[in-house]
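Need a sequence for this fold. Nothing fancy.
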């Protein structure tokens, strides 16, 4: 469950190049496509989804909370960022378009 930053250049990332300090482009994802869950009237809920930590990035939609990092796990098919406040899911991409989250 390593958090890996894809880099085009070889070599070890410098501390300041680690994920938390990168400028990430956030793209809203459809939770149905990335999390195994059950759709209710207005909600899409999944059991046993664990957030691994809080990100520096705020939610770009509601701007109410820091995004939570959710890595791939039993009911999560794609690592993503999650807003607890509005329950939206986001993919994170580097400025060159490379996915920032991998596992
Ligand atoms: Zn939000």
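Here you go.
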């Amino acid at each position: 469950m390593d958090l890996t930053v894809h880099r085009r250049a070889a070599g070890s990332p410098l501390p300041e190049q680690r994920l938390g300090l990168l400028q990430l482009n956030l793209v809203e994802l459809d939770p149905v496509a990335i999390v195994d869950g059950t759709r209710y009237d207005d909600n899409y809920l999944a059991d046993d989804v664990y957030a691994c930590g809080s990100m520096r990035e705020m939610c770009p939609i509601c701007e109410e909370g820091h995004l939570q990092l959710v890595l791939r796990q039993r009911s999560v098919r794609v690592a993503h960022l999650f807003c607890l406040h509005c329950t939206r899911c986001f993919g994170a991409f580097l400025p060159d378009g490379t996915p920032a989250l991998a596992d």
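For context: Helices lie at 31-34.
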